[in-house]
Amino acid sequence: MRAQASKDGLTLRVIAGSNNVLLAMDLIESKRHGCLGFTIERTDLDTGQRRWLPNLLRFPSDPLDRSELKIVSPPKKKKGKTKSGPGKAPDMEVPSVSTARAPLQKFRWGDYTLDPGKRYRYRVVARYGKARDIVDTGKKAEQRHAFDSIEGGVTVEVKTENNSAKDAGVFFNRAAAASRAYNLRYGNNDPEDIPDALWWLSRGLQEAVIAFIGRAVDSTFAVHAAIYEFQKPDLLQALVQATKRGVDVKAVYHGRVKPKPKNRKENPDKTAAKNAAAVKAAGITFAKPRAADPQGAIMHNKFVVLLQKQAGGKLVPVAVWTGSTNWTDGAIYGQLNVGHAIFDLNVAAAFEDYFQLLHADCSSDEMKKKTVELGPVPKTVADVKQGMTPIFSPQSTLDMIGLYADVCRTAKVLMVSAPFELHKDIEKTFDKRAPDTLRFLMADKAGSFGKKGAVKLLENDPGNEVSIATVIKSPLHDFQGALLEDAESFHHVGVHIHSKIIAAEPFGEDPVLVTGSANFSNNSTRTNDENSVIVRGDTMVMDIYATEFMRMFEHYWFRAHLEGKTKGSKTKSKGKSKKAQMARLMGLKEDSSWTDPYYKKGDQKMLERLVFAGRTEA
Question: How confident is the model over 237-243, as a mean pLDDT?
Answer without folding.
Answer: 98
